[in-house]
Write a structure and sequence with these properties.
Number of domains: 1
Distance between the termini: 55 Å
Largest sheet: 7 strands, mixed
Order of helices and strands: HHEHEHEEHEEE
Radius of gyration: 17 Å
Structural class: alpha/beta
Shape: globular
Number of strands: 7
Strand order of the largest sheet: 3-2-1-4-5-7-6
Number of helices: 5
CATH class: Alpha Beta
């Protein structure tokens, strides 16, 4: 009986997830839940200047795999994941509490969260969203903030470097060396 109840509950959760994904992608025009692989995440982390007591944001964090990997790398670090989808937020928050993670999850729109305290920002979002992200980081981020975007560039900013991991470009920006150019080259 409990097995059937558990199976039914999983099916309901999966159905809610599919409906929310459809709504998120088709109606709201947001990026779908796409997980970045461990190989890519570890390479990105090796390219960053991570230090204790920094604050790392993952925008549209989904399962927060990037933050979970950072948490294993540096113990004294502030990790903040921002996720707008209720079901993903709920399940991820439950999972993180069960494993004893210190990641702080915010169920919010990425544009409603202030990034002034961010030392590092990671995102894997649609190209249309990256223009808005560019405007946001220019207004809110402090000098020295590192921004990493997988696959899609920030059109207002000049990347510090671009690396290719598993046939996908990863753009690295640093607010102190960014050349703001309204006619920035599309990558």
């Amino acid at each position: 009986m409990y097995f059937l109840f558990g199976l039914l509950l999983l099916e309901i959760i999966y159905a809610v997830f599919l409906v929310s994904q459809f709504y998120n992608v088709i109606i709201k025009k947001n990026a779908p839940l796409v997980t970045t692989g461990q190989t890519t995440i570890k390479k990105i982390i090796s390219e960053l200047d991570l230090k204790e007591n920094q604050t790392v944001f993952e925008l549209g964090c989904g399962r927060a795999i990037f933050l979970r990997t950072v948490e294993k790398t540096i113990l004294k670090i502030n990790l903040v994941g921002v996720e707008n989808l209720h079901i993903i937020y709920f399940l991820n928050n439950l999972f993180l509490r069960l494993i004893g993670s210190k990641i702080k999850l915010l169920r919010n729109d990425i544009f409603a969260v202030n990034l002034k305290d961010a030392d590092i920002i990671y995102c894997y979002l649609f190209s249309e969203t990256m223009k808005k992200i560019g405007d946001k980081v220019l207004q809110e981020c402090k000098k020295g903030t590192q921004i990493v975007s997988r696959t899609f560039s920030i059109p207002q900013l000049q990347p510090e470097k671009i690396i290719v991991i598993e046939n996908k470009r990863v753009f690295f920006y640093k607010m102190e060396i960014v050349n703001i150019d309204k006619k920035a080259k599309k990558w």
